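Assess this today:

___
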Amino acid sequence: MKAMLKGALVALGLAATMAMGLQAASAAEDSLLQKVLNRGTLRVGTTGDYPPYSELDQANNTYKGYEIDVVTALDVDLGVEVEFVPTSWDTLGAGIAADKYDICAAGITMTLERLKSVAFSDPYLDSPLVPLILKKDEGKFASWRDMDKEGVKLAVMAGTSAEESAKKSFTKAEIVSITAPALDYQELLAGRVTAAITDTIFIKKALTQYEKDFAVVDINHPIEGQPISMMTLQGDQVWLNWINTWVELKKQSGFFDSLFQKWIAG
């Protein structure tokens, strides 16, 4: 009887192991990783309106920026070609869900709200969120918390983490969501809002031409950090494992440090 029971348990164990192996093989075969390799292209959704992360050169219809270099290197290591797909901030997740592109890379912040519907790679950059004001208003606000009062209008780009953060952090100030191609800082320059909520890297690199016009409220105490990473489809652990391993190896090699020097520090 014991021998029969032992034999049955061994058979069950073998069956379970085989089932797990088949499931793993099926997951690998069905993964976006295999689909990308079979297709020979990686479709990358990017906005092209957020230097130094992603900027579209209208003259020759090509993209450049920190994130463009990231996905270009990713494609080289995958052994495929890159295909850029234009998208907007308020349709990032919808494009992933609709299979318009495989990943999004445009200086996108990983947030808990976004993680409800999409997946993210491990982050490789942080760019804290701060209020941008006109130079003439410098000194009016000691911190971002002083801006949370009636009569204050805060411009944010629709669909961005800045919009999400502002709605969470400010309960009295009016949140004004701006839809591309209009831009939040343009609303500030026009005097239609009190401040624009944006990140420190964008301020440093993209708005240098407006240095005489803008000031930042308490840059050493931001509203919150902004972990930057690639957005992709939920539920594909094989694909996510590959991307996260790639990010970690690139961190160790100094790749992201070199991109920081190229696009941000310089």
Q: What stands out?
A: The two ends are 77 Å apart (CA to CA). The first strand starts at residue 41 and ends at 46. Residues 212 and 225 are 26 Å apart (CA to CA).
